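Sample 3 of the quickstart, ligand zinc ion:
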Amino acid sequence: MRAINRAAVLNTIRRNGGISRTEVARSTGLSPATVTAITAELIKDGLIFEKASGNSRGGRRPILLALNPHGGYVVGIKLTEEHVFGALTDLEATVLAKKTGRLDNQRLDTAIDAIVAVVSSLVAKTGIARGQLLGVGVGLAGIVDAREGTLRHSPIFGWRDVPLVGLLLSHLHVPVYIDNDVNTLTLTEQLFGVGRGIESFLTLTIGRGVGMGIVVNGQLYPGRHGGAGEIGHMVIDPDGPLCECGHRGCLETYVSDPHLLRMAHEAFESGDLPADVTEVEQLLELAGAGNAVALAIYAQAGETLGRTIANLINTLNPMEIIISGEGMRAADFLVEPLRATVDRHVMAGLSGDTEIRIDIMSDDAWARGAASLVLQELFKTPLYRSELVPTLSTLD
Ligand SMILES: [Zn+2]
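Result:
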């Protein structure tokens, strides 16, 4: 309970940037005495500090509390089939150092060793004390049970039921959190990005695959064991192209980078494209130069995505849908057909409810997302806070 109150106070201070103790008490529902005790502890731990006073309306100017971004540090790791991308960030998820490790094979012990090496290297590079490292977050594709700390299934590595948190803990000796990589990106949007303060939103990522993070009532929705959001495998056409998952005609087989390249290759074989395209950059270049076939490939992908998004709006009526991922490098060619298709298929009563936002993410977005896994724990406010807090304050 003490930890919950502490997190609630810390999160209120983080969200407001500069806030007086009186306002913290009002906003959390905690008693002024409790707030004074908790803030004293947070100042002692270096997590917050007293900054220049705010506006006065006569009388004494209130002292404002703010988050100390250098009160601690976290490492975020994005694990892909060939690389370990790591970033060390402060408490505001500002990246202070980056490091990339290579995986020579897809074995579990190789990946664990590579993650541990990247974390050590980042700590050494920034010169922070080991005790200032508050935790390590790891994001990766696949079905992750974040609560259990288990990777249930990774299609990329072929691993099943790996106790990844336990394995990393025994090497790193700091708190470790894991989640599906799209969920980590969704968390960053919620904590620091355009999802801040938004009750219900979806993050869609397009690139090597297609994923989705779901925020409902301010909480990430994991499903029963972390499997929610596998929208890349929504069936578009049961007789469509073969998907990595073993089924046919999944959404991914119409919009993911490997399948856009497959379509480009088919267009080359039938003589419609002048060159055999093997890299996404080449396809982007052709589209940028106005090649009609390349543009049609992207337009078709945009329309398929648009229909999916219309289905999502009709099903969930979210406040926002954020579209992100490496695939959004093609935003210039995808977004127009996408928006037109959404408009065509959203129910009349729902159109205008959902804002669609395109987020061309930076290179370190995935690693920052994984870092947010740790930051989230630090700032976590309990479920049903409005019910809990009055009970707690009466206990004081
Ligand atoms: Zn599939």
